[in-house]
Amino acid sequence: MRLRARFAGPLKGRARPPGDKSISHRALILGALAEGRTEIRGLLEAADVMATAAAVRSFGATVEQDDQGRWVVHGAGQLAQPSETIDCGNSGTAARLLLGAASGYPLSARFDGDQSLRKRPMNRVIAPLSQMGARFDSQNQRMPLIVHGGKLKGITYRSPVSSAQVKSAVLLAGLNAEGETILIEPERSRDHTERMLAVFGGDIDEVEIDGALHPRVRASKLKGADIYVPGDPSSAAFPVAAALILAKSEVRVEDVLVNPLRLGFFETLLEMGAKISYEERRDPIGEPIADMVVSASKLRGAAPPPRRAPAMIDEFPILATVAAFAEGETRIVGAAELRVKESDRIALMVEGLRACGVDAEELPDGLVVRGGGPKSVKGGATIRTHGDHRVAMSFLVLGMASKEPVTVDEAEMIGTSFPGFAACMAGLGGEIVEV
User: Fold this and answer.
1) Which residues pair with 292 in a beta bridge?
2) Residue whose C-alpha is closest to residue 382's, from 399, 369, 367, 370
3) Which of 199, 257, 322, 353 is an S-S bond match for 230, by CB 3.0 to 4.6 Å?
4) Which pLDDT band, with edges at 50, 70 and 90, does 338 fall under?
């Protein structure tokens, strides 16, 4: 499916992004590990999360949607031996977190995914889980692979990368390991697993090592809990970005998760001169929520520090789009992980930006964009996305503000994270159509 975006004037109104993907994955997995009933309101009903729902069913949990749209998980307090391959689709989060969870039980499970997921490295979780005692059958440490779990020992693991997926895999394995498990990372990544483990009754706290706090978990049984899923800030990034670069726009993006470890993109936008305010702040679930009020802004280039990368790793593509409409140079570094996401996002963004007339270049761990200010981007290109949902949405936002329409070649995968993306933008006054 090809989608085309064209200039449509200022954006006005309200939008509520779909439920947070990170919290949705974790609610299903922890609900499956817990004893009893877990009720989830606001679950993201997108392909990646539905892959996780199907996977936990294969491990013995019951997952159903009631007539009021709530999702209910009945867990048995453990994972059972699956009779079929665990198909994670396109979801690296499902794959890595479930590998960690499954490692804690005396079972053998075969994991697989689509062609994109088969190319993504799994060694970053295989390495620590193997140290804990899990065994893996794989070629090149990629999917398909088989995990053999059980009889784990707790470890203190210094992760070479700041990754919530690695951290979560290790902590979930630690729920069924002898002793304590500690995860140390260079910069703190998003902490949804730690927060949610506490809600489910897990024995989790923090320990100070080398002057910083790091999560520690001990073997513990989880109990079902009620979970509310707020709007995903990684999805909110797209209407926010569009409102900033389209003159005279003013948009309220409602019910957004504003966990401090997820706000790197918005912090960078503020440094670029963006007019963003947070209203109606609340904290009903151990995760802070607010409405974002955004107005069109005159933006300038920025150089976010590398330590901020873990807090904005999913937003680098849309930040590159915003940078094209800012005055001056934006230098984005510390994001080598983008090379092994659903695609090589660094290469695809630079290629697409250049095709739209933007001065951009690759760096080993990021990219440089030299923006020309509002109304400076020519557009007019058909963008290769390699089926990457965030690349596709980023260039559709660019097309909403460029001189000529922009087309993306593969848009089906947008549904993995933001079902109804085109309709959401249309509701604000944007124009994105199938061609």
Assistant:
1) 253, 278
2) 399
3) 257
4) low
Quick check: pTM over 0.85?
yes
DSSP per-residue string spanning 43-94: ---SHHHHHHHHHHHHTT-EEEE-TTS-EEEEEESSPPPPSS-EE-TT-HHH
Tell me which amino acid residue 175 is.
Answer: L
Mean pLDDT of 344-355: 94
pLDDT above 70 coverage of the chain, percent: 98
Quote the CA–CA distance of 260 and 252 in Å, as a whole number. 20
Matching CATH topology for 3-18+231-434 and 21-228? yes
Q: Residue 420 in contact with residue 13, Cβ under 8 Å?
A: no
Which residue's entry shows tokens 């309220």?
Answer: 252
Gap between the Cα atoms of 18 and 132, Å rounded: 36
Q: How many CA atoms lie within 13 A of 107 on its CB side?
A: 24
Instruction: Give the tokens for residue 13.
Output: 């109104």
Distance CA 30, CA 51 (A): 15
The correct CATH number of 21-228 out of 3.40.250.10, 3.30.70.1560, 3.65.10.10, 3.50.30.40 is: 3.65.10.10
Q: Which residues pair with 3 in a beta bridge?
A: 408, 434
> Using CA atoms, how far apart are residues 92 and 120, in angstroms rounded to an integer?
8
All structural domains of the chain with their residue ranges: 3-18+231-434, 21-228
The string of DSSP letters for 253-322 reads: EEEEE--GGG-HHHHHHHHTT-EEEEEEEE-SSSS-EEEEEEE----B-----GGGGGGSGGGHHHHHHH
pLDDT of 251 > 70? The answer is: yes
Assign 41 a pLDDT band (cuts: 50, 70, 90).
very high
d(CA 259, CA 241): 19
- Catalytic site residues? 314
Q: Which residues contact 145 (CB under 8 A, 6 or more apart)?
A: 110, 111, 122, 126, 136, 137, 138, 139
Q: What is the DSSP letter of 231?
A: B
- Six token digits for residue 78: 């453990």
**For residue 93, which of 26, 151, 32, 35 has the smallest C-alpha distance?**
26
- 19 forms beta bridges with 231
Bridge partners for 367 per DSSP: 332, 362
Contact call for residues 48 and 390 (beta carbons, < 8 A) = no
User: Into which CATH architecture does domain 3-18+231-434 fall?
Assistant: Alpha-beta prism (3.65)
Determine which of 23-37, 38-52, 335-349, 398-412 has the lowest per-residue pLDDT on average: 335-349
